[in-house]
Amino acid sequence: MTFENTGKCVIFSAPSGAGKTTIVHNLLRRDLGLEFSVSACSRDPRPNEKHGEDYYFLGIEVFKSKIENSEFIEWEEVYSNNFYGTLKSEIERIWSEGKTVIFDVDVIGGLNLKKLFQDKSFAVFVQPPSYEELESRLRGRSTESEDKINQRMSKARKELSFAKEFDTILVNDNLREACDAAEIMVREFLEK
């Protein structure tokens, strides 16, 4: 499968709990010509998740066959037989509609996308005001076990070390201000 890089993309990455998903959803509501890139995964949908809206739920065998057919621009095996990736067809669909792709991806995925799209991309690292605040936000969700929180915090420590490899760092210590700053940054990139 060939892939033609014809449009621009905006990449938001951050450790879990930094606020990137909230910022991305806020940007999608603003008049910027952005469309969210729906990722594919091999896992089953969780309650309230919809195929084609939250993820493309492919299952392990279909996901692996798409890897073999080079249908992804990037993919990662996050845990054993637990795959996530970005389909080339998803990016081409968005560009064919004359829109800019916006990604909400983990830090390694963000770096991989930046490497692929280079100057046609704008990569933003959303940083919490502190490591302690990040932990407080994760605990405030009340959705995860102590073990999961510890896993996420360990991963976050490593992810924070990659911040300088992004085009810019957006510190999210006030959500409204972070959303407004994100809009200004994205508008400037799109006007280039």
Structure description:
- With 192 residues, the protein is α/β, with parallel strands linked by helices.
- It has one domain (9-187): 3-Layer(aba) Sandwich (Rossmann fold), CATH 3.40.50.300.
- 43% of the residues lie in helices and 22% in strands.
- The protein has seven helices and nine strands.
- The strands form two sheets. The protein has a five-stranded parallel β-sheet with strand order 2-7-1-8-9, sandwiched between helices. The chain has a four-stranded mixed β-sheet with strand order 4-3-6-5, with helices on both faces.
- A hairpin with a 2-residue loop joins β5 (72-79) and β6.
- The longest helix is centred in the last third of the chain and has 16 residues, at 175-190.
Give the proportion of residues in helices: 40-55%
Give the overall shape: globular
- Class by alpha and beta content: alpha/beta
**Count of the domains:** 1
Query: What do the pLDDT scores average to?
Result: 90
- CATH topology, by name, is Rossmann fold
Q: What string gives the helices and strands in order?
A: EHEEEHEEHEHEHHEH
